[in-house]
Write a sequence for this structure.
């Protein structure tokens, strides 16, 4: 835990080969940040040259405020027991990412899910479009701007008989005749 | 392995022997399964114990809990009057509602079968619809397992021996980290807001502190309290008495958090920059205010913001009233008062010092020259103790004594001091005397737990070596026949007698006379207002009952143009925050009178 | 050979011999599968999206629902990811309790697999037994957590409640009972020629492809590769406990069954050790007020060995009081799609749900 020798060797191997940034997060965890065009070369390099033959996971995070999707590829070395994260960011407006299911077959499932849930296109990706959501006509639902509350309110009816519910804070300020100013309301109980 | 593997074919047939074993899945005769002692079944809520804080409803991730009014439960201070109702169609029995219930009233029971043909029955008000479930509680939550944080972040103070040496401030205030941690404990129910005479937006500013937005916290505080520095230090904080957490643990340190928020703006300029008060265009009306105490200052501040021309007439050389002259400086330093007054003046409040109404200016003049008048004179004259030799030199009232000390004058209390009374003023008198090296004893008629003073003040006094003699009824002051000076006080010991189940009353024990030798007797058994300055014709119209002015909820007196507030009116408690509430509400009243 | 007509056949979306809804679209020629594709199972409940709307503690009540047969590893993995982000220490006692819960969960899930595996082979006595015996483990869970299936017990900072009085004794008694029963299970299933014939040589996962295909857990160990998160990246107190990781060569259903059969015995061994070594002290490192608790910004990847294999949680925090993104990867996500699609061609239709069971496919992990 103290020296992180293997971790640093891995970090150097990847960062120097591709001239990219990265860091050792903790023991057994190393991350590198890559441009979206070099991701597949890094993954292939890690798989063929370094022995990262297992892909654990692939995820997408919607950073709506930065206007980006972050893709994280989690790959694993079964002998060294190291995990390498390859992270990249793609433009949220033009969400296109290289298809890597030729490197790992099961990446196909992740990519199909991301296509449905985030609307990311993977050119050349083969497979059912309706993998999870059948007949979905709204924006990809895992995007941050998709409001589940609103969707539920529009799609389903609420159970009758619960209209008499009161808000404790409102009830108390009504009773004491005070008004919480608007700028303070964001600090009231949700 | 050939296809016909005799062993492999016959082995499974051994299962036949199970036929003769006692079955373990079904019992004959049929027995119902007993739920475990920890089972998460239907809810039960102890309706009397519940305070309607709504924490259960907030944590419920399924939106299954509504807070509703029940017919036989009325809200009161410390109880919103609402109770949870569970939509069992949504509940997932995660029991987070139980784990966050600050009072422990909400529990789960062993009831896991609920059959009904009416879908509405699944909307269950626990406790009301299933009162008998009380005997089948299973998943409960004590203070150890609870998710509520019951322990207050301790406040750092000067050591008792250290602080009697000077008038340095005793309470040191929260650091940023401490304040965030303390603010995190708040569950934002808002029960405190109803108990606060001024209905401050407590959960909001605490939440702002918790999220690290101290500026917003200060802005929220100044929305209806222009003297937060004072409240942050010396408020009687009735809010903390109704905190949802104090039912089982320690209340959120609301006062100290407010103090923390004010400390983030140490200068007048910073307050002004952060609060950024919107001062409206002059509206042409003028208001005269008698007395620059908390009530008068509050009224002046919000009137000035609304564009009124405000002038305060103050008899003393310094504004602040009782908070200036009645509170010792180790609790509320002079700089703090000055800062607050300067801030007021910076937004346009005019204060005329050393101007005693009735002497330097007539009340008639103020009355005629202004569109409205606000009277906030406070209680100046101490009640007499009412025992023999009270007029001897060496007997002084606590407020006179405090006023002398706070005006930087001197008064020699000698070596030994007896203080009579059990309120904050008595403790103040005692602790101030201790700072002059005196050996102080407090004589109080009832028990220590009956003392109206803050527990923190009582504890503080004890740490400073002040002796408290409870159940002591003073009978006479003993004076030296030659010099006439006080040399001691005689008191009777008392026993507490509860009459008709009421509050126990002290009754003197005959023959228990005890003499305490002392050089000074400080009386602190209350004050009354002084109305000598008020011309007779006003006195009648104002309606003064038992020494206090009668007002309506907008603090309007019997005379349409005159509003009043503070300790001298009969409304709310006699403390600073009630005075602030009076000033704040009088502004609404004046607005209504003049602007319609 | 006469070329037969190709027929499309759907298995599912109702429980196709496994717990949970999924659909496999098969192309068959006669009785032989030509190709297979995993298809929508109408099971998507948007848990990952819903978690983003809840605060860190509220979210934990949703996690167990990712996989009905074995909910506890989900709770543990989430808790560990959040603890990593928050730098939160977990009391030693809580770690031991977590290990016991994990192994009990493995055992009860094994019982369910046992039922499914033999049931899909047409052997209907074993399900009666194993589901009955599983209830003894669920009783332990009920005593410990207050719930039988969904426990909602392991949360960030430790566990929710301390062990009830007498619980460890009851657990040890149950272990003794189950150990005895396992011998009887052997007689009716593993020594049973019918089961052997059905399982051997069917549903082979090739050893050289397994890791690349994303195969994990008992399925991977059934190909002879020794891989177990409990050993590779020990969490909680697995590094202080002595246990074996069984492997089998062959990669077929039979090999996987033998691996699982041995694993349950290892679980009993682990539980006995954990109970013997259990330290006293706190069981929970209290987090702040759950409504206001914020977790420092960052990303964490935590993984846990469940009965189906590695479960991973990728948790992202933006520093707020709600998770920014939680992505759950269950073993079935690869087993139920890529691996299944690769190994089904050439198999008999009757073996499809048999294979599904042996891969440990849990559809709620595919459609979350």
């Amino acid at each position: 835990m103290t020296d992180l020798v293997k971790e640093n060797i891995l970090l150097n191997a990847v960062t120097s080969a591709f001239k990219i940034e990265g860091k050792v997060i903790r023991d057994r965890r190393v991350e590198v940040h890559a441009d979206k065009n070099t991701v597949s070369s890094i993954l292939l390099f890690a798989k063929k040259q370094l022995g990262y033959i297992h892909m654990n996971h692939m995820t997408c995070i919607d950073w709506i405020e930065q206007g980006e999707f972050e893709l994280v590829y989690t790959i694993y070395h079964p002998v060294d027991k190291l995990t390498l994260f390859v992270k990249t960011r793609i433009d949220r407006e033009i969400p296109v990412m290289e298809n890597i299911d030729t490197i790992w077959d099961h990446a196909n499932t992740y990519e199909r899910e991301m296509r449905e849930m985030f609307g990311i296109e993977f050119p050349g990706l083969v497979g059912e479009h309706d993998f999870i959501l059948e007949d979905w006509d709204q924006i990809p639902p895992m995007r941050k701007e998709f409001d589940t509350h609103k969707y539920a309110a529009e799609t389903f009816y609420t159970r009758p008989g619960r209209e008499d519910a009161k808000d404790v804070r409102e009830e108390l300020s009504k009773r004491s005749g005070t008004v919480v100013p608007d700028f303070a309301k964001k600090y009231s109980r949700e | 392995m050939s296809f016909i593997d005799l062993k492999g074919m016959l082995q499974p047939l051994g299962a036949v022997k199970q036929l003769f074993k006692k079955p373990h899945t079904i019992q004959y005769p049929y027995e119902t399964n007993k739920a475990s002692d920890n089972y998460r079944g239907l809810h039960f809520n102890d309706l009397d114990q519940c305070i309607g804080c709504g924490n259960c409803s907030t944590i419920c991730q399924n939106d299954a809990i509504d807070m509703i009014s029940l017919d036989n439960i009325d809200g009161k201070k410390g109880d919103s009057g609402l109770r949870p109702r569970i939509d069992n169609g949504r509940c997932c029995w995660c029991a987070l509602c139980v784990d966050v219930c600050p009072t422990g009233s909400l529990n789960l029971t062993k009831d896991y079968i609920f059959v009904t043909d009416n879908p509405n029955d699944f909307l269950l008000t626990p406790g009301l619809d299933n009162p008998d479930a009380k005997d089948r509680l299973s998943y409960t939550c004590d203070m150890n397992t609870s998710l509520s944080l019951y322990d207050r972040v301790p406040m750092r103070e000067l050591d008792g021996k250290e602080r009697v040496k000077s008038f340095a401030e005793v309470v040191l205030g929260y650091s940023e980290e401490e304040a965030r941690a303390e603010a995190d404990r708040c569950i934002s129910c808002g029960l405190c807001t109803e108990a606060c005479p001024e209905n401050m937006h407590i959960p909001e500013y605490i939440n702002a502190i918790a999220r690290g937005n101290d500026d917003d916290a200060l802005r929220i505080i100044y929305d209806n309290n222009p003297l937060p520095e004072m409240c942050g230090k010396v408020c009687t904080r009735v809010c903390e008495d109704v905190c949802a957490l104090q039912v089982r643990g320690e209340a959120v340190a609301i006062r100290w958090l407010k103090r923390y928020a004010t400390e983030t703006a140490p200068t007048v300029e910073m307050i002004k920059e952060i609060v950024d008060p919107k001062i409206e265009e002059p509206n042409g009306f003028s208001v005269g205010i008698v007395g620059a105490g908390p009530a008068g200052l509050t009224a002046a501040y919000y009137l000035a913001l609304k564009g009124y021309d405000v002038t305060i007439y103050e008899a003393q050389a310094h504004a602040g009233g009782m908070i200036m002259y009645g509170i010792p400086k180790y609790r509320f330093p002079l700089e703090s008062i000055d800062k607050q007054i300067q801030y007021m003046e910076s937004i346009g409040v005019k204060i005329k010092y050393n101007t005693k109404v009735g002497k330097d200016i007539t009340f008639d003049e103020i009355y005629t020259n202004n569109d409205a008048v606000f009277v906030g004179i406070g209680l100046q004259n101490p009640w007499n103790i009412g025992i023999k030799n009270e007029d001897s030199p060496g007997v002084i009232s606590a407020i006179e004594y405090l006023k002398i000390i706070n005006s930087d004058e001197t008064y020699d209390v000698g070596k030994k001091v007896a203080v009579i009374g059990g309120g904050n003023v008595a403790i103040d008198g005692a602790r101030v005397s201790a700072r002059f090296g005196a050996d102080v004893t407090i004589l109080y008629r009832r028990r220590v737990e009956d003392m109206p003073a803050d527990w923190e003040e009582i504890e503080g006094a004890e740490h400073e070596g002040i002796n408290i003699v409870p159940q002591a009824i003073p009978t006479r002051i003993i004076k030296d026949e030659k010099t006439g000076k006080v040399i001691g006080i005689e008191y009777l010991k008392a026993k507490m007698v509860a009459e008709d189940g009421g509050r126990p009353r002290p009754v003197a024990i005959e023959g228990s006379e005890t003499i305490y030798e002392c050089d000074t007797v400080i009386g602190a058994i209350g004050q009354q207002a002084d109305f000598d300055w008020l011309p007779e014709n006003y006195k009648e119209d104002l309606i003064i009952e038992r020494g206090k002015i009668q007002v309506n909820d907008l603090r309007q007196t019997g005379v349409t143009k005159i509003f009043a507030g503070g300790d001298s009116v009969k409304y709310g408690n006699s403390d600073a925050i009630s005075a602030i509430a009076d000033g704040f509400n009088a502004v609404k009243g004046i607005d209504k009178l003049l602007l319609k | 050979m006469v070329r037969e007509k190709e027929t499309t056949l759907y298995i599912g979306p109702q429980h196709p011999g496994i717990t949970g809804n999924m659909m496999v679209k098969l192309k068959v020629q006669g009785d032989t599968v030509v190709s297979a594709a995993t298809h929508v199972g109408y099971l998507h409940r948007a848990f990952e999206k819903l978690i983003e709307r809840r605060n860190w503690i509220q979210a934990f009540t949703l996690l167990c629902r990712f996989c009905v047969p074995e909910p506890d590893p989900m709770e543990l993995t989430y808790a560990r990811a959040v603890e990593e982000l928050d730098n939160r220490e977990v009391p030693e006692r809580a770690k031991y309790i977590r290990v016991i819960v994990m192994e009990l969960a493995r055992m009860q899930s094994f019982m369910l697999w046992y039922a499914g595996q033999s049931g899909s082979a047409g052997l209907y006595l074993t399900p009666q037994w194993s589901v009955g015996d599983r209830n003894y483990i669920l009783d332990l869970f009920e005593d410990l957590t207050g719930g039988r299936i969904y426990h909602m017990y392991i949360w960030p900072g430790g566990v929710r409640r301390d062990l009830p009085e007498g619980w460890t004794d009851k657990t040890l008694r149950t272990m003794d009972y189950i150990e005895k029963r396992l011998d009887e299970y052997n007689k009716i299933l593993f020594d049973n020629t019918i089961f052997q014939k059905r399982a051997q040589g069917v549903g082979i996962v090739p050893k050289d492809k397994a890791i690349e295909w994303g195969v994990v857990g008992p399925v991977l160990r059934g190909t002879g590769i020794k891989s177990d998160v409990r050993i590779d990246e020990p969490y909680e107190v697995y590094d202080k406990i002595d246990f074996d990781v069984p492997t089998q060569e062959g990669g077929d259903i039979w090999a996987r069954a033998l691996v699982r059969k041995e694993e349950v015995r290892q679980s009993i061994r682990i539980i006995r050790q954990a109970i013997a070594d259990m330290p006293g002290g706190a069981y929970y490192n209290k987090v702040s007020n759950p409504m206001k608790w914020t977790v420092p910004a960052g990303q964490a990847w935590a993984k846990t060995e469940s009965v189906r294999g590695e479960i991973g949680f990728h948790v992202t925090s933006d520093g707020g009081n709600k998770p920014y993104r939680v992505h759950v990867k269950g073993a079935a996500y690869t087993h139920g799609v890529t691996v299944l699609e690769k190994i089904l061609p050439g198999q008999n239709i009757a073996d499809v749900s048999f294979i599904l069971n042996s891969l440990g496919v849990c559809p709620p992990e595919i459609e979350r």
Summary: Residues 92-119 of chain C form the longest helix (28 residues). The beta strands of chain C are 6-11, 23-29, 32-39, 154-155, 158-159, 298-306, 309-317, 325-329.
